[in-house]
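Lecture notes, unit on protein representations.

Consider one protein chain, 876 amino acids long.
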Amino acid sequence: MAAPDINVELSLEELRELVPQLQQVTEKYKRSEAIQKSLFDISELASSVSDLASLYPAIHEIIAGFMPARNFYVAFLEEENAIVDFAYFVDESEDLLERQMSAEDLKNSLTGYILSSGNYLFLVKENFQQQVEQLNIRYIGPMPVDWIGVPLKRGNQIIGAMVVQSYDEAVRYKQEDLDVLLFVSQHIVNSLDRVKSRELTEKTIRQRTKQLRQMNDELQEEISERQKIESLQQALFEISELSASIDTDMNVFYAAIHDILSRLIGAPNCYVAILDSQKNSLTFPYFKDELNTQAETRSLGLGLTEYVIRQGRAALLDSTNVGQLTQDNELDERIANVMIASNDSWLGAPLFIDGNISGVIAVQSYGGSHKYTQKDLEFLRFVSHHIAVALGRKRSTEAIQTYNQQLAEKVKERTEELNQTNLYLQKQIEERKQIQQQLVYDAHHDGLTGLANRVLFNNRLELAVANKLRYPQNNFAVVFIDLDRFKQINDSLGHHAGDCFLREVAQRISSCIRGHDLLARLGGDEFVVLFDNFEVEKDIEEISSRIINAIAEPFVIDNKEVYSGASIGIAYIENGYQSADEILRDADAAMYQAKSSGRGRHVIFDKTMRDKLLEELEIESEFRQMLKLEAFECYSQPAFDLISKENIYEECYIRWEHSTLGKIKREQYWQIAEQSGLTVEMDKFMLKKACAVLKQWSLSNSQKVNHRLAINLSIHHLTQSSLAIQLVEQIKQAGVDPKKLVIEFDENDLNRRSQFVLPAIKVLKRSGITLVLDNFGSGLASLSYLYSYPFDYVKVDHRFVSTIPRSERNLKLVQSVLSISTHLKFKLIAEGIKTDEQYQALINAGCEFGQGTYLQKAQLLPICHEGIKSVEPHLI
């Protein structure tokens, strides 16, 4: 609606009529602002949330900010395990008993339908049961009033579903709620992937840190053990010295041995028992005990000492095993009872002299004050050997000293190895610190170019906004740079060449800016620069021109010369800005305006650009609704034999009359479909309508019963032969003979993907479908299609026909193609014949077929309105 003339005085009634419209516009802009803020919040979640458990409630809160979402859940499909994981579930009428469910069990549910089909569902109570039955879905849980579910996709892969539902009659969902939910779903997937990646990285770091800490603990334990071994070695060395220097005073020798045992294994009580020559009695040359002052000579019996002598090996006896020895008649019951009652522990080792047992050395503790172990037993066994040597074979002293020396060297060698291991561990810790520093760096820089990434750039930009608010005299500007033809370079030369290209672009931009300016890569082929401390705005414009000129220079990649360009949007930071996202949004809008104005230029942002973007968003939204409701008007225009005026086929196409902008050109709404990812849906719509028209003609017994019908089809159905086979099957299932169908392919589409579509086109040809190359001459390398592709007809672009007969050059082009058609077995159609002069010139040139308003104007196909139950008035 046009704004009222400010010079015209409006009446009170007219002002009242304007109020609802102004309120509607205000609500519309408030909702747009809420959506933009939600997208920014979702993007910020990926940087601020460290784990998925915190991410899902945050997403729930954001979605609840622009639509009612008291009942909300997110489910993910794990294809490997064939399960559906309900990662987040909040419902006021239902409790989730199991977080994970079998995908097979949920196959016929609402959630299962979204996960398997990739389509969204919008169910309201007025048609809930009807749609559920139509889709053959089994509803699980309490019946809602309204229910919206959208798929979560990573590229073309369906990874999950996001659902909101209402049980309250007062809370109803609208179409705009579905549109917004679809719009933000991809942003949510991006945030999920980034948080998952960071969570996995942090988990790996924690696991590695835990491993290093465990290795350190084990090393410290081993060092401690080696220290004990060194102490043991020192004790053994002392025993060896005693053995080598033994004299007639054995009491000194025994006391020294006892002292060594006390230091290493704890021996408050120790004695040495010697077996007499007849082996009938025991004497105790050394006896040190807390409870008894001395031990008398006694005959052999069932004591602890006698048990070691009978067994001929060292023994560890305590309350755990003396009872069994009593039952085996190996130990006196009284001694066993005393040990059990007092919780005593006893170690004894035999003394071998010349291969015979000559006695026993023993240590013991009372009342559980010290429990001996097998290591203590091994040590005592070793000590007993040295004592036996000291008693009977002094000549072994030198050998023992040599052995001790070797053992000391081994301990020293092992200790040195442990020191080296310790140094290695310290190196690992240093490397871990470096990894942590690298992770911090990676989190703020682009991995490909080494430039700042979006996180670091946003942080610096937020600081610039705050600085501008505090010091208005400081100047800041953001330059948004988008590269031309990057996708073509990446697709034609490969991702490696694309990476080399982006690195070269980063170097060229860096050479054009100042050292303290911040250059960042936001992703893909988008770069941004934050300028500060400049005098006048003209300086930024001059730098932008330098950047455009630098990128316009040829690039040499893999020995191939390629060309690109840059479109630049400039946004100067003013006091009205409150966040970095607002500035980036406006710089992006200016860049988009530069691209729309012909690329290779820079544009300074003004508010009209933002209004234009909002208008385009509104057009796209209305286009989606029109396509969903199949509300487009379908027209047909026949192609004729120019001599006999016989109809060879009719071309079916749609017209769109926008509620405020009027008639939308075919090229414009196909461009909207391409940008919105709705090309395949448009193809399905056109194919469905074409099949309906052909079926109606076949049943109506009209004069069109044998007519063929043509539709324009994008190449998205032709990337694989299997897709073309499916297309043919769909036509047959619709009850239509493929020979009645004509499919036209735009030459410009083939230019982009020609190397992939030839096998699929041959599949369509074999099925009997008539193939037409449309807009011939409007693209590049046109003649290659005439030789390589089995087209039945070739349509000359209407821009060539419009200049005939004035342009002799274009007329000769038509004649040349006619000459080629004879050899290549295709027929030429002149498109866009509007005048009798054009018609006569084409007849004279030998052209047999044509199409245009001169021959017959397009006619409405009523069949295209069948099946539409309700359409909002402004959409028709």
